[in-house]
Amino acid sequence: MVTLFPVRTMCSLGFAKSLGFALIPLAICCIVANVLLFFPNGMLDFVREGHLSMYVWSFMGIGGGGIAILITAVTFLSMGKCADSCGTDSCAMCGSVLASLIGLAGSGYCFIISGLAMIEGPLCWNELKWHNPFQNVGAKYLFDRGSWSQCDQPAHIVEWNVTLLSILLGLSLIEFLICFVQFISGLVSAVCRPCCYKQQYILSA
Q: Residue 140: is its pLDDT beyond 70?
């Protein structure tokens, strides 16, 4: 008697797992960058007194580019266990599609809010009051470094914000692309399972 034992090579699950590992450091960096926005020049006074832009309080890096992405990464990393418990890879890949949507939403939120914060500019002490001197000029101030000196306090707040927000923009864009790649991969794998499996048959008497 001859018996055929199908051995599946789960290439899609391995690919998703590698993307999960890649997302973790990106999410951590987003959280750190967002936290630093609360403490210009490492000082606590400004967050205590509420002298921060409203966009900083949106937690775009902590919630969007951070926690949401960590949830996505953990899901990608645990897809192998999900496949074992479900008995099919398509179930796990459907889960990866949903996790990818969470990641897309989180990274997209981080990118949009960071961009709006960059355009608006920081809240600072200027003309004997706390306000945003760049609010009505849009992103033009980014190309006029001479205007950055308008902010008396916190010192170098424009450089601080631009640097951290640029980091958030870059990281969230990479996160978005990674999640988008896995979304497409998971969708194709869930719909076209035979395309993802390499069948190897072992003959035994």
A: yes
